[in-house]
Inverse folding.
């Protein structure tokens, strides 16, 4: 088996146990002797807590709040920033903010008692939307301007270019909240054991939890041991959010001196969990007399919610990707993370990049269409190439194969003929999008911040165990990593052991996030296996360890955001064809074709599955996934009103790849888990816009809104608003 | 008020005394340790808790246990032990149908129910057959392929 190409698909190691239903997710453990916990949350978006009225609590039941945090402990969760409190004190900033945790031995009784808790508030006027946040509706509550975080990027001289421009046009592109809808809802259990605590959680990043919650009890992170349980989907929704779940459990376990468990049902999970940041991107684009882009200015606003947590990093990635797969001569971008009284937004597949990529793709379509050009012809004038300058004044290090990928997608989709034959407004349309995703942490973050370590241990029986903190959450990492090790060591995959991480026995190889696992940790495993190989037959019981080292010669300044933001990007091209019913406005997707550059594929079937799932999740974001927040309350709270794609909504996809090995990845592999989400919504909206002949600049686009555009929308060929 | 309820579970007669309004999913998971029955939405929308009720696919999160009295229930534990169930599990593993896995036991039930009634389904028939089972990971294509594979591998078994 070992001689063949690593890309050849193997059976996933977890496929049978998951299909038979024998693998255990966190709620499948009984955790006997543990108490049940239920979070008591703010029912209002903004205000002061005046009083909390508790019912009589029977013996063994207790309401735990910030007041129960011991002396020396800190009432915050460390999620990059430390502003998000574990328990609200006197102020609440969003509906669903944790005020306390009610614990007791009987789950139903805990629920009944929770219903009887009454909280008096002094209500204040909330700011819910980005605009309301910017206007400081109700008064600023973060800094003096409701701006949690900001950054600016500058390449060339936008102002000078604007002075020379024949025309400067402006357009605003918006995207909405998106809920992760991992099929397994959040859940965790925290158990005191001697001088430490053990946390079992459905989570992406076990070390994040330990680091985030240990300050609550003034403990060092090693005193909070986190054991990841089989995780039923995450998509970023279990990157930092489990900290919000586990923090109160830790304090409750400390107070009760007993284990405490908590599993959300779907309604609780949708109403009270992080989402994808809504965005508003305002472009000002300078054109010469022939309609060519000479400068692009963008203001990128993300709705961050009540607390900053990790959102500055999300905003940075958003701004870095705002020029998409293009090279424009002069670029300026200002990013603003806006404070609002909504549930804080957090990581979601793409981590800020999908919003700006959707925005730039859509804006370029509209710039082309107002000139009567097919968007593809316009976009291809600006395709970025190896050696070109990026949005952060770095260079593109690798070969960019967009022309080859475009060729594949055009051929498979018969793009040219369809684009020619389907007249704008004819009811049929084919759209195309281009996108990328910078792999791993930005700049030198892998070396400066993460400092990943990984070990391989060989036992006397010849088994090799991989010790790292990467988690399986559906993406296939339990198969990918052993496959890499087995391939290098030339041993059967069955001889390689890779368990769900336990922070007390594995080194910290960083979070399972940022499309970094294969690219960075896979490389560490490949290197470790190469170190082990010459010793494998000679020695019985030994460990090898590898550390991440950033390649030399690619400087990055994290204080100015200048330099090489990413050494390896994944690249994508996606085409979508639709038909719109002229009477009902219903959209039928007739075809989806994509090509991706993920370097060399570690397992073609696993990558294929990632493409399928990412593309469909992106199409859901662009179409049916409406998540409104009215007055601070999410309006969609169940799977019957928050509509994610079913098997009937989109047809079988055409999936293509190009081979473009990445010099610093294992076997040439690059990150791809997020990339595959980043482009399908833009292609879909391009297709629908053409089919109805109207300009669309915001998503989601549920069917009921298509009719509105058909009746009242702006013609595709009309000029974008001119500004000076 | 508690009631005595008897039913057949995965081919064996079982009985319990309980509140007849308890949800079937809770009884299966808590009283009979059928942890392969997953709770995804609690409102019959996602299909993760699918079981066979007298041979028909139902969502066990919206059925009271009282309704099961005297009836026949098959869960993923029972189905995956049958020859047909093994063919589906194998096909899912070989076809790349599985990612996070949380929807998969319900998906196996849906495939079993579909193929038992339609041994050689088209793409569209498979998509319709699993349309009550939500998957957030796979985009469904490889699940559809895997069900084709199970139909092909099972052949005449699906007609028996």
């Amino acid at each position: 088996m070992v001689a063949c190409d690593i890309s050849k698909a193997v059976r996933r190691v977890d496929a049978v146990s998951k299909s038979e239903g024998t693998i255990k997710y966190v709620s499948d453990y009984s955790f006997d002797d543990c108490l049940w916990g239920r979070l008591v949350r703010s029912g209002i978006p903004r205000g002061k807590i005046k009083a909390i009225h508790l019912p009589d609590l029977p013996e063994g039941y207790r309401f735990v709040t910030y007041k129960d945090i011991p002396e020396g402990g800190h009432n915050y969760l460390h999620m990059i920033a430390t502003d998000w409190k574990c328990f609200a004190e006197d102020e609440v900033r969003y509906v669903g903010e944790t005020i306390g945790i009610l614990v007791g031995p009987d789950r139903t009784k805990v629920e009944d008692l929770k219903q009887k808790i009454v909280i008096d508030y002094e209500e204040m006027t909330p700011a819910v939307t980005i605009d309301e946040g910017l206007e400081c509706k109700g008064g600023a509550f973060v800094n003096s301007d409701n701006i949690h975080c900001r950054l600016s990027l500058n390449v060339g001289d936008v102002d000078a270019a604007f002075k020379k421009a024949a025309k400067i046009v402006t357009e605003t592109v918006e995207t909405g909240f998106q809920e992760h809808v991992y099929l397994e809802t959040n859940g965790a259990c925290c158990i005191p054991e001697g001088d430490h605590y053990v946390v079992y959680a459905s989570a992406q990043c076990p070390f994040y939890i330990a680091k985030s919650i240990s300050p609550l009890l003034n403990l060092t992170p090693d005193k909070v041991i986190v054991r990841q349980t089989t995780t039923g989907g995450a998509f970023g929704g279990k990157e930092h959010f489990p900290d919000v779940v586990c923090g109160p459990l830790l304090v409750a376990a400390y107070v009760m001196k007993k284990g405490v468990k908590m599993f959300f049902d779907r309604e609780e999970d949708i109403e009270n969990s992080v989402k994808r940041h809504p965005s508003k991107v305002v472009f000002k684009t300078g054109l010469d007399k022939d309609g060519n882009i000479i400068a692009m200015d963008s203001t990128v606003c993300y709705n961050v919610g009540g607390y900053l947590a990790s959102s500055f990093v999300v905003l940075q990635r958003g701004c870095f990707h705002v020029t998409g797969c293009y090279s424009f001569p002069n670029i300026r971008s200002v990013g603003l993370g806006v404070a609002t009284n909504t549930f804080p937004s957090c990581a979601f597949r793409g981590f800020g990049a999908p919003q700006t990529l959707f925005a730039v793709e859509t804006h370029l379509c509209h710039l082309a269409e107002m000139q009567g050009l097919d968007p593809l012809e316009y976009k291809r004038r600006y395709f970025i190439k190896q050696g070109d300058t990026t949005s952060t004044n770095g260079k593109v290090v690798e070969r960019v194969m967009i022309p080859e990928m475009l060729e594949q997608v055009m051929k498979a989709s018969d793009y040219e003929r369809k684009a020619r034959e389907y007249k704008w407004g004819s009811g049929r349309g084919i759209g195309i999008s281009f996108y990328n995703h910078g792999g791993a942490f930005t700049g030198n973050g892998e070396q400066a911040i993460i400092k990943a370590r990984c070990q391989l241990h060989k036992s006397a029986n010849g088994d090799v165990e991989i010790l790292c903190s990467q988690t399986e959450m559906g993406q296939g990492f339990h198969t990918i990593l052993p496959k890499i090790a087995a391939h290098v060591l030339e041993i059967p995959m069955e001889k390689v052991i890779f368990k769900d991480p336990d922070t007390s026995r594995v080194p910290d190889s960083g979070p399972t996030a940022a499309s970094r696992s294969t690219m960075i940790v896979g490389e560490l495993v490949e290197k470790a296996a190469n170190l082990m190989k010459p010793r494998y037959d000679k020695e019985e019981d030994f460990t090898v360890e590898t550390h991440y080292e950033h390649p030399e010669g690619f400087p990055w300044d994290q204080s100015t955001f200048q330099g090489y933001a990413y050494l390896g990007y994944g690249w994508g091209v996606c085409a979508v064809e639709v038909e719109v019913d002229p009477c009902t406005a219903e959209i039928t997707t007739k075809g989806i074709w994509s090509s991706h550059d993920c370097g060399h594929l570690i397992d073609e079937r696993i990558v294929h599955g990632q493409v399928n799932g990412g593309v469909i999740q992106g199409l859901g974001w662009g179409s049916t996934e409406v998540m409104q927040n009215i007055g601070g309350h999410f309006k969609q709270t169940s799977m019957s009103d928050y509509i994610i794609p079913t098997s009937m909504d989109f047809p079988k996809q055409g999936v293509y790849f190009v081979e473009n090995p990445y010099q610093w990845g294992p076997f040439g592999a690059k990150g791809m888990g997020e990339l595959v989400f980043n482009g399908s919504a833009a292609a879909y909206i391009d297709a629908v816009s053409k089919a109805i002949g109207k300009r669309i600049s915001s998503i989601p686009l549920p069917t009921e809104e298509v009719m509105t555009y058909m009746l009242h929308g702006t013609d595709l060929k009309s000029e974008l608003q001119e500004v000076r | 008020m508690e009631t005595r309820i008897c039913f057949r579970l995965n081919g064996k007669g079982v009985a319990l005394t309980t509140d007849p309004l308890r949800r079937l999913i809770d009884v299966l998971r808590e009283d009979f340790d059928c942890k392969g029955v997953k709770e995804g939405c609690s409102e019959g929308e996602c299909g993760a808790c699918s079981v066979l009720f007298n041979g028909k696919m139902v969502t066990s999160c919206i059925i009271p246990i009282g309704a099961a009295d005297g009836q026949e229930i098959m869960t993923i534990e029972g189905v995956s032990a049958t020859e047909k169930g093994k063919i589906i599990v194998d096909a899912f593993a070989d076809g790349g149908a599985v990612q996070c896995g949380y929807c998969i036991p319900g998906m196996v039930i849906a495939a079993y129910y579909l193929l038992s009634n339609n041994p050689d389904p088209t793409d569209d028939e498979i998509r319709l057959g699993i349309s009550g089972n939500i998957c957030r990971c796979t985009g469904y294509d490889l699940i559809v392929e895997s069900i084709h594979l199970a139909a092909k591998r099972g052949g005449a078994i699906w007609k028996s």
Notes: The radius of gyration of chain A is 26 Å. The mean pLDDT of chain A is 97.
